[in-house]
Structures
1.
Amino acid sequence: MNLVHSLLLLFLVAAILVQGRSVVSSKGIFIGVDNTDPNASGADIFRDPRNHATAAASVIGFASKQSGFRPKEQGLRTTLREFQAFHQKIVMFPGFMLTQRPYSNLDLTGDLDQFKEQISANYVSIMGKADVAATAFVEQIPESAEPESSGTWTLVLVTIYDDESNNIFVDIASIEVEVSVNGDGSVSLRAQIAKLNQSTVQVITGVLIANADRFGSAIQTKKIETFKDELTTANSEVRSQLLKDWLFGSNHACKSEFPLVHRRQRLYPLLQL
């Protein structure tokens, strides 16, 4: 039995090295000035427009929990399906309005500096901060990794923008890239055409105010720093967790508890509580 078990492990390792695996990495950032009352919580987060950056962070936390998209907690066990479910819940939240959905092709040479330049040139930023987004994307690629982490990586960036006029936006961007791990363990991008996808929603102030009691009782208050922390995958996990997940398994890859829904069901997140 031990021999069979050992052969099975060797087979799994060989399969990983040949095929690679799909990796989802995420980062949460905030751009602007947070004017939220530090003592506000619950309904007050939604009732006062000065607190709406934190309201956006709270809705993101709610969507993260409901969809199973928890990058800090799950690390690289996070699946693309969970990210897609999270994305759908943000776009369909009744207090958000979809304002743009741009996408761009990135012509990559394999050089990380050129990757950053391509993102800066193509990322559509609400406040002209494409360079900040580019840095956040590049930071998700570690300097070194295990050989089995070669494969398709989906890099996710969730950004809350506050333009200081109580206009709050949430942008969800993703880039799917092919990553190679060299013989010395260093990580590099392959020359490729990668696609940058974005979805930007704006907080509808009137809807949040009108439904402050309802939203406040259903959605746990999340501060900006908590949002940034919970939506970020640690690079240490990128370097160390992959082989363990492959060898010993994870139920997340087959999990689908939160199917996508039609826009006519846009109130479903609150009705399911």
2.
Amino acid sequence: MDASDSYELIGHRDNATQEAQSPERFIWWSKLIPSFKILPPSALPAGGKFAAGISYLTFSVSPPIYLQYLLSTCITLGAQCRTETVQSIPELFSTLEFQNLHGVVNCTGIGAGKLVPDPAVFPTKGQTIIVSGQAERIATRSGDGWEALVIPRPGANETLLGGCKIAGDWSTNTDENMTKLILDRCRPIAPEILDANGDFEVLSVQIGLRPSRRGGPRIEMELIAHEDEGGQAPKFICHNYGHHSAGFEGSMGIARAAADLVVRFIGNN
């Protein structure tokens, strides 16, 4: 995880929205980031005809490295890794080797739709592109109903370009037209990694299904009555899913919220 300068370019100057005219009024988090500032017109990329721009200091995370770090940390602290197939979470409590569990933290993402089950869970399809070279900064470009992303990957000479959000689409097939659209939208905000012909060197194109949920994320306890030798012993399921596209950026706060619920339950029981 590296600290990185970031900027966001908003709209087109020939059709400026209210947000572009007064970013500090319409971006709710502007007062929460001390480094937030509005860019002067002279600082906007040439040729983009952008209506406005903002900058701030943020973080760039490489998911493969971050996930490996989290897993290795858990193992160091004594966690054991198992792969199991279950049809429902309560059935775990009836399995002989898991009978002594106090509970389960359910972080099954989009799988929670069938496992819980929760009909409010749905996929939001995204397509991203990995290109060669590390961009100088995180950059975002927004238009009418779309957003282009440039995210350098720390620890690797590559950059992620995105993206799209297609609600309710379960397909994991890439779309060539979307690939071209992403590349075209990202060129003005990452010119430093274009080749001599003004193109990106594409390394891979991938699809992800964001674990979205109508009504927002679910972080709450569910108690399960379970018969034990001493009568009814409460078990818990701490649900923690439905975070849409905010899983990595919110992961630390999300984990703390779930951990607090678990600690409080165990302390009271």
